Amino acid sequence: MNKIIECVPNFSEGRDRRIIDKILEAIKSVDGVKLIDVDPGKATNRTVVTFVGAPDEVCEAAFRAVKMAAEVIDMSKHHGEHPRFGATDVLPLIPIKGISMEETVEYARKLGKRIGAELGIPIFCYEFAASEEKRRNLANCRAGEYEGLPQKLVDPAWKPDFGPAEMTPQVVKSGAIALSARNFLIAYNVNLNTTSTRWANSIAFDIREKGRVKREGNSLTGKIIKDNLGNAVYTLGLLKGVKGIGWYIEEYGIAQL
């Protein structure tokens, strides 16, 4: 049985079609890889790409796309509504046919090792490819976003799984990558009849598994409650396995969940 995996990288560019097309051409340069979907977003300044094929070919296409993204995207100048910390922000591999999750993890970690060694980009592995429990959650790996990378990379508790643990000139430009082997993810947006990102985030915090930080008094503006180690204490949300965030979409004039 032929082995087939899917790759769904998210690139931190959703406005300049010329940049997006250069990354797409890098993917399409690998024979046997089929580009399925391209979904750019102006407000998020982010493009989600989906392609499939045999594992070796998909990993080669992913590597070429990461290399091109690092060349054409400058994270020091990037702004958008979506959380991000790299030109190629997330790079998940999904088993589709004839391959187990365990095998997909091996491909993901091999790809991460190559990117770290050849391109000098820090790699944080999450979900099934995670090296420890706290790294399973993408939100933990990306906490602090690009602006927080200088502190994260020198923290021994957050040493990258692959690649440099310092802000080299390359990392200043490319940022870091969250790489994984995971199951299918269903993502959708809900338009709200308001312009308030506070309300949108409040709904997201109640729904998502991570929940919201506990506060003294007012749940939105009160002082954050912390544990003995100084970490914020969270009240879990309603739905396990669900992630959520709110933002304002300027082109539509509404907040979105």
- Could you tell me the CATH topology label of the largest domain: Formiminotransferase-cyclodeaminase, Chain B, domain 1
Percentage of residues in strands: 15-25%
CATH architecture of the largest domain: 2-Layer Sandwich
Residues in helix, %: 25-40%
The number of E-state strands comes to 12
What number of domains?
2
Task: State the separation between the terminal residues, measured CA to CA.
Answer: 41 Å
Please tell me how large the radius of gyration is: 18 Å
Instruction: Provide a count of the helices.
Output: 7
CATH superfamily of the largest domain: Formiminotransferase, N-terminal subdomain
For the biggest sheet, the summary is:
7 strands, mixed
State the CATH class of the largest domain.
Alpha Beta
Gross morphology is globular
What string, H for helix and E for strand, traces the elements in order? Answer: EEHEEHEHEHHHEEHEEEE
**Average pLDDT for all residues:** 93
Structural class: alpha+beta
Instruction: Give the uncertain stretches in residue-range form.
Output: none
Description:
It is a single chain. By secondary structure, this protein is an alpha+beta fold. The chain has two domains: 4-181, Formiminotransferase-cyclodeaminase, Chain B, domain 1 (2-Layer Sandwich), CATH 3.30.990; 189-257, no CATH class. Helix content is 30%, strand content 21%. Strands 1, 2, 3, 4, 5, 6 and 7 form a seven-stranded mixed sheet that branches. Strands 8-12-11 form a three-stranded antiparallel sheet. Strand 3 (34-41) and strand 4 form a beta hairpin. Helix 1 packs antiparallel against helix 2 (55-72) and helix 2 runs parallel beside helix 3. The longest helix has 19 residues, at 101-119. The protein is globular, with a radius of gyration of 18 Å.
